[in-house]
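Subject: for your reference before the review

Hello V.,

The reviewers asked for a structural picture of the protein, and I figured it would be easier to keep everything in one thread rather than splitting it across files. Below is the amino acid sequence we used in the manuscript, unchanged from the supplementary table.
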Amino acid sequence: MSSIVKVDTIQENTSANGITVDGLNIKDSKLVTANSVVTANITDANVTLAKLAGDSVDATKIANNAISEEHLDVTSITGHTAETSIADGDTILIHDASASALRKMTKANFVAGVGETNKPIFKVRGSNQTISHNTDTKMTIDSEDIDTDNCFDLAGTKRFVPNKAGKYFFTLSLFCPTGDDINYFNASVRKNNSGAGGFSGVQRDYNNVSYSGIIEANGSGDYFEAFCEQESGGNRTINVTEFSAFYIGN
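And here is what came back from the structure prediction:
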C-alpha cells in the first residue's frame, strides 16, 4: 500500500508572503525574537525619521563634541527672550583659549576683565616757589588729589614711580601767580632726572604754560619729576597747578 506525502506549497518570496533571510520567514512576528535583529543587518537607508519616535534621541545618545557650529541654527540665540539689562550675577558663555573649552562668566567678572582701567593714575599740585632766572629747577609738590596705586612719593622724593610697564599720558601745568609775563617759560617732565625720554613745552611772554605728552616707563624703577625753567631776567614765583599721568597701554 503506497503512502501519501503532503507537500507544502512553496510561495514566492514577496512582501505579501514575507521576507526570508537565510531561509527564515520573518513575516510571522513570532519568529522575531529578542536580539534577533542586529545592527549588521540594518543598513543606513533602513532607519528614517519616520521610524524615530518624538524625543527618542536624548543627551545619552549624543557623543561629546558631536554638536558643532554647523548643526546650530541662529534661532539657538534669536529664539530666546530678549533682555534689556544684565545683573552682575548673570552669566555669559565664553571660550577659554588656554583650556580650549567653554566657560561661563558673570557679568561682573566679564566687565572687570574687558578694557583698560588706566591705572595707575596720579594728580598732584604745588605751592608757590621761587624760580631763578635761566635755572632748570625741580618743582615743589605738596598736595595730592589722586594716587590710585601709591606710586607718587609725596612725602619724600616728589617722584612718580609707576608700578606697571607701558605708555603714560603726562600733563604738567605751571603758573606765575603774580601775573608777570615771562619771556621764556618752560615746563618739562624729566625721566630718571634726564631730559632724554621725557618731554617739555614752552610758552613765551605769558604767565602760564601747560604741556602734555606720552612717555614710556619700564614699570620697575623709572621715575618722573616736574621741572621749570624761566627766563625773565630775575626771580619769579611759580607754582604747579597740575602734574598728572595715567596709564594708556603698551
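For the response letter, the relevant points are probably these. The helical segments are 75-78, 107-113. DSSP finds two helices and 14 strands in the chain.

Happy to draft the paragraph if you're swamped.

O.
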